[in-house]
Amino acid sequence: MKNISIKEIAKLSGVSTATVSRVINNNGRFSEETRQKVLRVMEETGYQMNYSAKTLRMNKSFSIGILVPDITNYFFANVVEKIETILFDQGYSTIICNTGRNVEKEAAYLSMLEGKMIDGLIIISGADEFEFQVQNDKKTIPYICIDREPKEKNKTVFVSSNHYQGAFEAAEHLLQQGVKHPIIVMHQRNSSSAKERLDGFKDALKKNNYSFNPDKHRLDFNLDSSHDKKSLQEFLQQQNDVDGLFAINDDIALNILDYLREFEVAVPAQMKVIGFDNVPAGQHSAPRLTSINQDTQKIAEMATSSLIKLIDGNKEIQGEISLVPVQLIRREST
Q1: Which InterPro entries does the annotation name (predicted)?
Q2: How confident is the model over 136-184, as pLDDT tens digits?
């Protein structure tokens, strides 16, 4: 099939070449009827845009990079899916990079993304504060951080669930349900969200006249099933009055439900358990898991909106911090 020009597309569509260009670039004013007419002609004629030429001409690739530490994690995957959908509707393609929480892999992906001349970058979670030093001084790359504090806050926008609020409400819920000795079960990864959840838990205890003791109120998992089961068993033997558990995420909470079943500890009669993330599996566990729900749609909308503003040159929003409220979902485990 021969290459067809924008001029020919315009003639077949009955509109100007300028209108066709606006439809292709999704930029400017045109009606939905006009857009559909132009797109129909493009499809019928097999028109293919030369994206390389377009990138060079406009200094835009219409692509966004997304760094995610673990694509198998329900929260991360859910946010990425919603971000991709929003960006696609706005004419951007996405390059999703699963770093596996590996610093060297993350650095390699950043270099690769810069080489592809991405227009923007979204960083989701991770251990350390994020810093991006662009190697090509001919094009700056705006970036947004989700659940991972940026090192230079005045250069970007930080979007996060209100992890402190969620943990505070989780701890208070346990106490309101009659728990006398609540504990928090953490993982051994450093992250700003984990720190906020720990602070929220500790402050809820303080508000209710409990003095937080890390030896009595905190258990760390290393995310190894056999080791974690033994750690929980030994902890409960040493602190035999523990009657409530707040797990820092639902994966840990669901494992705990299994371990408690093996230990013949009845939930919620003898032990109340609450998680964080509201993963679908929690609705089907036995008993069904009480959890903290994160508004992934709102997070995705705020992150993409802010990034596109930065791409368009709006520097007034740099330094903004947006905390998205969370919601306690009460189920049978408490």
Answers
A1: HTH_LacI (IPR000843), LacI/GalR-like_sensor (IPR046335), Lambda_DNA-bd_dom_sf (IPR010982), Peripla_BP_I (IPR028082)
A2: 555 688 999 998 888 888 888 999 999 999 999 999 999 999 999 999 9
Q: Domain 60-162+296-325's class?
A: alpha beta
Sole residue written with tokens 């991972």: 148
CA atoms of 149 and 124, how far apart (whole Å): 10
Query: The tokens of 7 are what?
Result: 């001029």
Fold held by 163-293: Rossmann fold (3.40.50)
Locate all alpha helices (DSSP H) within the chain, ordered by sequence: 6-13, 17-25, 32-45, 51-58, 74-89, 103-115, 163-176, 192-207, 214-217, 225-238, 250-262, 296-311
CATH 1.10.3210.10 holds for 6-49: no
Rounded distance, CA 181 to CA 47, Å?
Answer: 67
Token pair belonging to 96: 């999703």
> Each residue of 34-87: pLDDT tens digit?
888 888 888 788 776 655 555 545 567 789 999 999 999 999 999 999 999 999
